[in-house]
Amino acid sequence: MSDDVRLMSELGLRAYRFSIAWPRVRPAGCAVNGTGLDFYERLVDELLEHGIAPWPTLYHWDLPQELEDRGGWANRDTVYRFADYVGSVPRRLGDRVSNWTTLNEPWCAAFLGYAAGVHAPGRTDPRAAVAAGHHLLLAHGQGREVIRGHAPGAGAGITLNPFPVHPNDPEDAADVEAEQSAPFIGQQVVAAAQVRQARAGTVGVRVEGPPGHEATANRVGARCVRPVPYGAQRSAEGISHSLCRHRSTT
């Protein structure tokens, strides 16, 4: 690790975004693993010694298996376990870290993980995906509050991944319909935090917000840092059910 940080310094980097592994810090989502936190403390100190600002991400799709076994992000209790985990980290590192990211690309975790089945946990349940999207946003809001409780002056935000979508075949009605649905599936649920606005049938079920969803927008918070990675546009292709298939192009 020290060699990697030295190379960053030689390259002239002034900030380094890295992801902290939830299962490494709180295995099973329960007791704190001090050894796991020790590693990140050494990394932060090494970065600062080389004049590189650490910018940790607290959730990058690695949910403790025990929490997934209880329903994962489709289970509201995961929100509170995330808040417990988040509190463990700035308690140790908050005096040296000025900027935090709560979640990396929650759309991927919710819709690729729980609806499309191409990311962990590999589920294909649209209802679970919408619930996961809601709970991830709520977790961001709670995590942000926890961070600021330990580090009041720190920036705390979320990383989103919006993308333009075009129909794979503009003459194909199914592709056009998939393209029109894609912004809802990919961005509106996450960016606007308004689950109730889901159109009936967009994800193959009648979508209603999970219990307590009305408070999500307030808990997520309008004023926060939002890093936005941007690397692909996508084409939408209609398929037999109303989830659309995306093809990424760089």
UniProtKB/TrEMBL annotation:
Hydrolase is among the record's keywords: yes
SUPFAM superfamilies referenced in this protein's UniProt entry, alphabetically: (Trans)glycosidases
GO BP: any one term: carbohydrate catabolic process
Keywords: Glycosidase, Hydrolase
GO CC terms in record: cytosol
GO terms, molecular function: beta-glucosidase activity
Highest taxon, organism lineage: Bacteria
Transmembrane segments: none
Family label: Belongs to the glycosyl hydrolase 1 family.
Name of the protein in its database record: Beta-glucosidase/6-phospho-beta-glucosidase/beta-galactosidase
Source organism of the structure: Actinopolyspora biskrensis
